[in-house]
Amino acid sequence: MKKNKVTILLTTCDRYETTLPLCLMSIFSQTYSPYRVVLIDDSKQKKFYDFQILKNILVLFKEKNIEFDYFYGQCKGAVPALQIGLENIEDGWVFKTDDDNILSSNTLEILVKNIKPNIGAMSGIIIDKYLYSFYKDNPDKRPKEENGYYSKIENIYSEFNIQMVHEQSKDIKKVEHLYSNYFFNRIVADDYPLEMSPSSHREETVFTYNIFRKGYDLIVIPQVKIYHLYFDHKSGNRQWTNSDRRKNELFLVKKLKEWNIIPDKMEIFDDGEKIFITKKGVDYLIVYGN
Asked: Where are the alpha helices (DSSP H) in the chain?
């Protein structure tokens, strides 16, 4: 296989001894090694190098010739941290992951095998037990192929993202946006939307849909498995409030209007306390309160 230049883009906040070591070890264990890991530490403490387990993992990275670059975040949340990392990656393919995600060992190998000139970004299935339970309890929300695509942007409020459906065919699916973790061509990607709140929510939708709007294909490869871990401590995205997520939902609504998805396909009601978003003709409701 021709070696492609692959960088891991990873932000972290106060998970030095919980999920971050597991995430980094899953990167180390890849059958296709990245050439570089770019980590942005958004914690106020900035104690990454104080933990022996993390220093040991960096020794393993060095043995495998994986470069490691560490940057200070601004303690303003995931989106500004991601932008810092993006500005320090010039080219090649980038896999953005979260510090509470574990990559199956062949994740990068499968993704790299599917690199083509017309593909701008790709991802796999997110194994999340809580969202999977929600899907099982709401089978009517299972995404359907529509005009050759799953996860169409106009259906974002009326169906589940295909990446959250654990039981599906092995066929590669074309989509219009990606969720959570994604592998993208750095050259075709725009900056992250810094207008968003500190909460990591909906920025991946805006980021990947902008790649789709440029004419590049986005795909989901079901053989790629990415596991989402839960840790109850108020770290990472769990330190931010529902108001932060609400702000990001309103930002996405603004973008949907700019993209002419609204008002023809959706109705939005914001009473200052809660947001109600429905798709015309579909009995669906999403609510974010203060």
From this structure: 20-28, 52-63, 78-87, 107-113, 129-137, 203-213, 242-258
Q: Is residue 268 a contact partner of residue 262, using CB atoms and an 8 Å limit? A: yes
Is the pTM of the predicted complex or chain greater than 0.70?
Answer: yes
Identity (one letter) of the amino acid at 191? D
Q: Which residue has the tokens 């589940």?
A: 160
243 token code pair: 């108001």
Residue 225 has pLDDT above 50, yes or no: yes
Ordered structural domains, the chain, with CATH: 6-231+239-289 (3.90.550.10)
Report residue 92 as tokens.
């090649």
CA angle 215, 216, 218 (to 5 degrees): 130
Q: Tokens standing for 254?
A: 């603004």
Would you call 281 exposed, middle or buried from its count of C-beta atoms within 10 A (0-12, 13-18, 19+)? exposed
For residues 57 and 25, the answer to whether their CB atoms sit within 8 Å is yes
Per-residue pLDDT averaged across 135-164, rounded?
88
Tell me the residue ranges of DSSP E strands in 210-289.
217-228, 266-270, 274-279, 286-289
- The mean pLDDT value of the chain amounts to 89
Q: Who contacts 264 (Cβ-Cβ below 8 Å, separation ≥6)?
A: none
